[in-house]
Amino acid sequence: MMAVILQVDFPSEGPFGESMSQAYRELAESINLETGMLWKIWTENSQTQEAGGIYLFDHAANAERYLKMHTARLESFGVKNIRGKIFEVNAALSAINQADFLSR
């Protein structure tokens, strides 16, 4: 597996915390159906008014496809300044730091 990390963040006025959990539950469930998506960590910072996520995808092509679709979705909600980056995962070093996701 040539796993990649997709990092996405953008300005957000909220919701945050429990309100975010309730508001985006259906979206979170739908993300599980995305091709090649292995997991997502949702990120938020109410103090700096930012939100986003860290995703693990099985291939760069799936991460790129998702980033394109997700950017368009966010823009349709009026979100601007969306930042998305894709990184290859160094499996050997990551395993030293308990990243067992690569052995699945």
Task: Characterize the structure shown.
The radius of gyration is 14 Å and the shape is globular. It is of the alpha+beta class and 104 residues long. The mean pLDDT is 93. The protein is built from 4 helices and 4 strands; from the N terminus they run E-H-H-E-E-H-E-H. It has a 4-stranded antiparallel β-sheet with strand order 2-3-1-4, covered by helices on one side. The protein has a single domain, classed as Alpha-Beta Plaits. 36% of the residues lie in helices and 30% in strands. It comes from Acinetobacter towneri. GO terms for molecular function: monooxygenase activity. This is Monooxygenase.
Spatial order of the strands forming the largest sheet: 2-3-1-4
SSE string:
EHHEEHEH
Counted by DSSP, the helix tally is: 4
CATH class, named: Alpha Beta
Instruction: Write down the CATH topology.
Output: Alpha-Beta Plaits
Largest sheet: 4 strands, antiparallel
> Structural class, from helix and strand content?
alpha+beta
Approximate strand percentage:
25-35%
Mean pLDDT: 93
Unreliable stretches covering 5 or more consecutive residues: none
Distance between the termini: 10 Å
Number of domains in the coordinates?
1
Shape: globular
- Helix share of residues? 25-40%
- For the record, the CATH architecture stands as 2-Layer Sandwich
Q: Round the Cα radius of gyration to an integer and report it.
A: 14 Å
Report the strand count: 4
Which features would summarize this protein structure in a list?
104 residues; alpha+beta; Alpha-Beta Plaits; four-stranded antiparallel sheet; 4 helices; 36% helix; Dimeric_a/b-barrel
